[in-house]
Design goal:
single chain; 450 residues; alpha/beta
Length: 450
C-alpha cells in the first residue's frame, strides 16, 4: 500500500515541479484572472497526466507488476489516478466556469482584454483555430467522464453495466487528449513539462485505441474448455476445472487470471486454485457467490463450454526465505493457498525435498461445508501444512492475538494474507504495533479490481 501512495504522490509532485519550472512567476501573480489562467493550466496538466497513466495501466502491463507488487496493486493505483483525475478535472472546470458565473452575478468585473498576440509560427496558428472546438468538445467529454468514473466507483451498480460503460472512458479520453493538446499553453511544449505531457498523452491515446479495439492482453490469452464443475452449497462456492491444451505458459501458485465465459460480461479476475502441470494442462478456479455475476455463474456454466483465459498476473507467490510462513486465507481468500498446498504436495509426491519452511495456515470462515473442509484438510496434510480451521460461529473470530498465541515464532515469520481488505488492514496495523516489519514481511493481496 505504501508503494502505491508514494507512486501516486511522487507522480503529482513531479508534474507540479515541472509546471513550476515553466511558470516561475506563478507564486507572484496578484491578479485574480491571471491566477485563474495559471490554475486552469496547472489543473489541466495534472488531470490529463493522471488520466493518461490510468489509461496506460488499463492495458495490464506485466512489466510494471514487480515495481508495484502485482496487478492487484496496479489496479488500486489505477483507481486512485481515476479519482485524482476526477477531482482535478472538476477543479479545472470550476476555474473555467466559476469566474464567468461571478461576472454574470456582478461579483467580479471582467478585465479588459486586448487582441490576442499573433501566432509565432504555423503550428501555433493551427492550434489557435482549433481552440473553440477543443473547448466545446472538452466540456462535453468532461461531463461524460464524470458520469463514467462515478459508475466505476459506485459498487452497487452491477458489474455488467460497469463493464459495458467503462470502456467508453477511452473514447472520452481521446476527446480530452485533443482538448489538452490544443489548449495547453503553447510555450510549454518547448519545456520539460510539455515534453512529459506530450509523452503521457501519446501513451494514453495509444492505450485508449487498444481498449476501444478490445485488444487488451491478446498476447497473454489462451482458449480452454470446462471439464468439470462442483458446487459446495454450504459455502456457496463453485469449483471449475478448465482444460487448456495450448497457449498457456504456466503460472506460479498464488497468481490469478482473467476469465471470459460470456463476452457480454467481459473478463473477470479469479485466483488460480491449482498449480500448473505440463502433463495435464488443467487450471482450476474457485468462485464464491459475492456479486451479481458470481451469483449467476453456477447456472450459466456447463461442462464442455469454451472460455478464454488471460494471464497469469500477480506477485502473491510465496517467494521469501523466512524459516516460517503464516498464511491467512479468510473466506474465499483461501484460494491461493490451496494452489500452493497442491504444489507442495506434488513436490513431496515426486520425491523432492519438502519445503524448508514451517507453515501455519489460518482459515477463518463464516460459512461451512463439510466436503470443502475435508478437501482442505487433505490438501494441508499432503503439503505438510499445519491447518487452523476456524468457523466463526464455533471458534469465534480470528485476530492477531490469536495468531501470535498459536505461532510462538511469529516474529521471525512472514505473513501472507488474502481475504477482506478491511480485515487485512486490521491485522496489518496490529502486527505493526507489535514491531513486526510489515513493509518487508506482511504480504496482502488487494483482490479488488473495481
Amino acid at each position: 500500500m505504501r508503494t502505491i501512495k508514494y507512486t501516486f504522490w511522487i507522480f503529482l509532485t513531479a508534474l507540479t515541479a515541472l509546471w513550476i519550472l515553466a511558470e516561475p512567476a506563478a507564486f507572484t501573480t496578484k491578479d485574480f484572472f491571471g491566477l485563474r489562467s495559471l490554475m486552469m493550466q496547472y489543473t489541466g496538466v495534472l488531470a490529463i497526466g493522471c488520466m493518461s497513466v490510468a489509461m496506460m495501466l488499463s492495458l495490464r502491463p506485466r512489466w510494471v507488476e514487480p515495481w508495484l507488487g502485482g496487478l492487484d496493486k496496479m489496479y488500486r493505483l489505477h483507481k486512485w489516478l481515476g479519482i485524482g483525475a476526477l477531482v482535478l478535472a472538476i477543479s479545472h472546470w470550476l476555474w473555467a466556469k466559476g469566474p464567468k458565473w461571478a461576472v454574470g452575478f456582478g461579483l467580479l468585473e471582467r478585465p479588459l482584454r486586448g487582441p490576442r498576440p499573433p501566432a509565432a509560427n504555423q503550428i501555433e496558428q493551427i492550434l489557435l483555430t482549433l481552440r473553440h472546438n477543443a473547448e466545446e468538445l472538452g466540456e462535453w467529454a468532461f461531463y461524460a467522464a464524470v458520469i463514467l468514473i462515478a459508475i466505476a466507483l459506485i459498487r452497487s451498480i452491477p458489474y455488467r453495466f460497469f463493464y459495458q460503460t467503462h470502456k467508453l472512458l477511452a473514447l472520452a479520453f481521446l476527446v480530452l487528449a485533443f482538448h489538452s493538446a490544443v489548449l495547453i499553453k503553447f510555450s510549454y511544449w518547448s519545456s520539460p513539462i510539455g515534453i512529459v505531457a506530450a509523452l503521457l498523452i501519446v501513451g494514453g491515446v495509444w492505450s485508449a485505441v487498444i481498449v476501444l479495439l478490445r485488444r487488451i492482453g491478446v498476447g497473454r490469452q489462451a482458449k480452454g474448455r470446462i471439464t468439470s464443475l462442483e458446487y459446495y452449497p454450504g459455502v456457496r462456492v463453485l469449483e471449475t476445472e478448465i482444460d487448456v491444451p495450448s497457449g498457456w505458459a504456466g503460472h506460479k501458485p498464488g497468481q490469478f487470471a482473467f476469465v471470459v465465459s460470456d463476452p457480454s460480461e467481459g473478463a473477470h479476475p479469479y485466483t488460480i486454485a491449482s498449480p500448473w502441470n505440463d502433463a495435464n494442462h488443467h487450471i482450476n478456479f474457485i468462485v464464491k457467490e459475492l456479486g451479481d455475476h458470481t451469483r449467476r455463474i453456477k447456472d450459466k456454466l456447463v461442462v464442455g463450454q469454451e472460455v478464454r483465459i488471460e494471464g497469469p498476473y500477480g506477485c502473491f507467490t510465496f517467494d521469501d526465505t523466512c524459516p516460517h510462513q503464516i498464511w491467512i486465507g479468510a473466506g474465499i481468500g483461501i484460494t491461493p493457498f490451496i494452489a500452493r498446498m497442491k504444489y507442495l504436495a506434488k513436490l513431496r509426491a515426486d520425491g523432492h525435498a519438502p519445503s524448508p519452511q514451517n507453515i501455519d495456515l489460518f482459515h477463518p470462515t463464516a460459512d461451512y461445508d463439510e466436503v470443502a473442509e475435508r478437501k482442505l484438510r487433505a490438501d494441508a496434510e499432503a503439503a505438510g501444512v499445519r491447518l487452523h480451521f476456524l468457523v466463526d460461529a464455533r471458534h469465534g473470530r480470528l485476530n492477531a492475538d490469536r495468531i501470535r498465541a498459536e505461532v510462538p515464532g511469529w516474529a521471525a515469520a512472514s505473513i501472507w494474507f488474502c481475504g477482506p481488505v478491511g480485515f487485512g488492514e486490521v491485522l496489518r496495523r496490529d502486527f505493526a504495533d507489535h514491531q513486526f516489519p510489515i513493509e518487508k514481511r506482511f504480504h496482502q493481496e488487494l483482490f479488488t479490481m473495481r
